[in-house]
Design a protein that fits this description.
single chain, 339 residues, alpha/beta, Rossmann fold, eight-stranded mixed sheet, four-stranded antiparallel sheet, 13 helices, 12 strands, disordered N terminus, binds adenosine-5'-triphosphate, binds iron/sulfur cluster, binds magnesium ion
Length: 339
């Protein structure tokens, strides 16, 4: 058992691998503040998959980048983020590199853009074995080929290739190989299946499931409710920089309480039961012009006077539910989405 395996199996299941508390991220563009994350809190535990869903620009990638210390210079961050209890914002540059290199595997949507164009693919993987496992050159290259063999039938050819010589689907497979090579404790996957053909999509999801089954905690960001249904233990629904609802996956699909969650599910033909399929009206708000009202108000068909006067609702435990079901709404849905 290597050193990493020992530490990764150590924590009790109730110790979160990732904890985020009241995370706030504001970008500044053209002098205007863009509040992309407005008080986000969640945990990711060993062997658990948390999926974040929500329309474009709701702040999902911002959260992933904040945890990984990859926000651009025009972002201001506050709140707490922990990896196994260790404060991520307090980590040195070297500790952050180690966190991203060995403890948290990263799968981004565009595998090609994430790979270095001037290095052979095998060399890119080998480099992390040398840096984080102290392997010698030859050993690290062999280890890279071994890792590629998990997702390619001709791993040596891929190891020798440059990124321009492989397809987008192959680049995603390389991302899987790289993200899982050092057996990280956590995987952060941002739209891991976007634009993939069905075979590579299936491989991607299978790889994530295998990681989860071996105790890895997964934070998966997706627009694809097929991915949510297949992978998620818990779901966080994002709207305009806040979580508007969090629940276990079964509750999310059956008895969502926030009108936005209801509308989101109801706009998907493959999900909506008879009578529930309705296109959601309107568009997400411009984050630069948010008021202190509920951000969903302009699109909501459940709004009452209270929504206009009482300020943005807090994320609170849904009445009569388990503690794990929270929603941010004064007039929660009374009917189930599906029986
Ligand atoms: N570098 C940046 N500078 C300024 N604004 C940004 C920057 N990155 C993101 N934003 C803004 O922050 C908000 C949240 O963006 P983010 O990329 O986190 O959303 P998302 O939920 O991941 O969207 P998508 O589903 O399209 O990937 C958007 O309004 C976006 O325009
Ligand atoms: S608080 Fe009011 S406006 Fe906001 S989602 Fe609930 S019902 Fe709609
Ligand atoms: Mg995104």
């Amino acid at each position: 058992m290597d050193e990493h395996t020992e530490t990764s199996t150590e924590p009790a299941p109730d110790v979160p691998l990732i904890s985020v508390r009241d995370l706030r991220v504001t970008y500044k563009t053209n002098g205007l503040p863009v509040p992309a994350a407005r008080g986000i809190s969640f945990d990711v535990r060993p062997g658990e998959v948390l999926t974040l869903v929500g329309e474009s620009a709701s702040g999902k990638s911002t959260i992933a980048h904040a945890i990984l210390g990859l926000l651009p210079d025009n972002a201001t961050v506050s709140g707490e983020m922990y990896y196994r209890g260790q404060s991520i914002p307090d980590m040195s540059a070297a500790e952050l590199r180690r966190l991203r290199g060995t403890e948290i595997g990263i799968i981004f949507q565009d595998g090609r853009a994430s790979l270095t164009p001037t290095m052979r693919i095998g060399e890119q993987i080998a480099e992390s074995f040398r840096e984080h496992r102290g392997m010698a050159m030859e050993e690290s290259l062999d280890a890279a080929v071994e890792v590629l063999a998990r997702v390619f039938s001709d791993p040596r050819r891929i190891a020798d290739a440059y990124v321009f010589q492989i397809s987008g689907g192959m680049a995603q497979r390389v991302m899987i190989a790289m993200a899982t090579a050092l057996k990280p404790s956590v995987i952060i996957a941002d739209e891991p299946t976007a634009n993939l053909d069905p075979a590579v999509r299936h491989e991607m999801l299978t790889a994530i499931e295998e990681m989860r089954d071996s105790g890895t905690g997964i934070l998966a960001i997706t627009h694809d409710f097929g991915v949510v249904a297949r992978l998620a233990d818990r779901v966080g629904v994002m709207y305009a920089g806040v979580l508007v609802e969090t629940a276990d996956v079964r509750t999310t699909f059956r008895t969502p309480k926030h009108p936005y969650t209801f509308g989101l599910l109801g706009s998907i033909p493959t999900l909506a039961p008879r009578g529930r399929l309705v296109a959601m009206r309107g568009n997400p708000p411009d984050l630069t012009t948010l008021t202190d009202e509920c951000a969903f108000l302009p699109r909501c068909n459940k709004a009452t006077g209270e929504c206009r006067t009482a300020g943005e609702p807090a994320l609170t435990v849904v009445e009569g539910s388990s503690e794990g079901h929270l929603a941010r709404c004064y007039n929660q849905m009374a009917v189930p989405f599906r029986e």
